[in-house]
Write a structure and sequence with these properties.
Elements lengths: L1 H5 L2 H28 L2 H27 L3 H30 L2 H12 L4 H8 L1 H14 L3 E4 L2 E4 L3 H17 L7
Antiparallel strand pairs: 1-2
Length: 179
């Protein structure tokens, strides 16, 4: 049974996006821990690595199983769509993990059973949170400071934010939770 299943081109076709995502996650983790130390760059490196794996596996399948050009095109479009959707999901999970202030606040409120606004401000120091985010944006070159004002320096993250806004608008019908 397993032999027939693993030697079926349709099974291999549908496994390639998953394999691409696994390679993506491994390469992203290794690159981030191995010296890149920039989440956005490590996500890009992981995405490209997974995409290469997807394309190489697709080329191998067309060679090994003599797939028609029409079927190859359809499966490639489907697999690229699936891989892209899984990448968005993967990035969203990372975003939730790396920006988990709400979760930490809920844990704090749960642990104390009752907390005032002032206690939250003391515990989470909003000025320090904003300062750390600004420092991170300056350090990564996303914004620059000149004469006491901040200016947009790189547009990559802005474009990603616009794409995610469009994605949220398409799926949810709104761009943010405040709409």
């Amino acid at each position: 049974m397993w032999d027939n299943l693993l030697h079926s081109p349709s099974t291999l076709w549908f496994m390639t996006p998953l394999l691409g995502l696994v390679v993506n996650g491994v390469i992203q983790t290794l690159s981030y821990r191995g010296g890149v130390k920039n989440l956005l760059k490590s996500e890009f490196v992981g995405f490209i690595s997974g995409l290469i794996i997807l394309l190489v596996c697709s080329a191998w399948i067309i060679h090994e199983f003599d797939v028609s050009a029409r079927d190859y095109s359809i499966f490639l479009i489907v697999n690229l769509t699936i891989y892209g959707a899984m990448q968005i999901w993967f990035t969203s999970v990372l975003g939730i993990i790396s920006v988990a202030l709400r979760v930490r606040m809920l844990q704090f409120v749960s642990a104390t059973q009752s907390v005032s606004y002032q206690e939250l401000v003391v515990a989470f120091k909003p000025d320090e949170l904003i300062q750390r985010r600004i420092e991170r944006l300056v350090k990564t070159g996303q914004i620059k400071q000149t004469d006491g004002k901040y200016y947009l320096n790189k547009r990559g993250l802005l474009y990603i934010a616009l794409i995610l806004d469009a994605y949220k608008l398409f799926l949810l019908g709104k761009k943010s939770e405040f709409d």
